[in-house]
């Protein structure tokens, strides 16, 4: 009886040492969908600000929500990478499709902002700061997805550069409208 109790205790301790979860593909897809929803909300806010009296400051909170969600998404992807997760072709396709949709929504926001610089110039610093953060986070997510979704690696590699270029153009355009570049010029 003592042997069985000792064995049971050892088995329980061993079970507790094993990670309690491994990130499944559904968790990653769900997180990416949540990030996509935040991008849609940001786009809707930008559209209403463009046609309404609120001014550019109304987008600040929505940008914050997008960055917070992007960081949360990256944490989930990074966790999967930390567990050395490698997804099947079917799972990789679902993750890649979700990431493609997400980047597409963010690109719509960036294109809208690029076309509306006069409306949003009061928020230039916010746009530049948050865009720079998103470029960094999305770059990390893209790199990590390539590692955990090997069947889709070539496709994932193709998704990010065009969106990244649009972000960089937007950062450059807003950088001269009161963003960090304009303020830095006065300091130097």
Q: Which features does this protein show?
A:
mainly alpha; signal; 8 helices; 188 residues; elongated
What's the gist of this structure?
This protein is mainly α and 188 residues long. It has helices at residues 2-17, 25-51, 60-82, 89-115, 117-120, 124-148, 153-175, 180-187. Residues 1-22 form the signal peptide.
Please provide a written account of the structure.
This protein has 188 residues and is mostly helical. The protein has one domain. 81% of the residues lie in helices and 0% in strands. It is built from 8 helices and no strands. Helix 2 packs antiparallel against helix 3, helix 2 runs parallel beside helix 4 and helix 4 runs parallel beside helix 7. The chain is elongated and about 45 Å long. The N and C termini lie far apart (79 Å). The C terminus is likely disordered.
Estimate the mean pLDDT confidence: 83
Rg is 21 Å
User: Main β-sheet, in a few words?
Assistant: none
Extended strand count: 0
Low-pLDDT residue intervals, each spanning 5 or more residues: 9-21, 179-188
Helix content: over 70%
Described by the principal axes of the CA atoms, the overall outline is elongated
Order of helices and strands: HHHHHHHH
Structural class: mainly alpha
So how many helices?
Answer: 8
Keywords: Signal
Write the layout of secondary structure elements.
Layout: H1 2-17, H2 25-51, H3 60-82, H4 89-115, H5 117-120, H6 124-148, H7 153-175, H8 180-187
Helix pairs in contact: 2-3, 2-4, 3-6, 4-7, 6-7
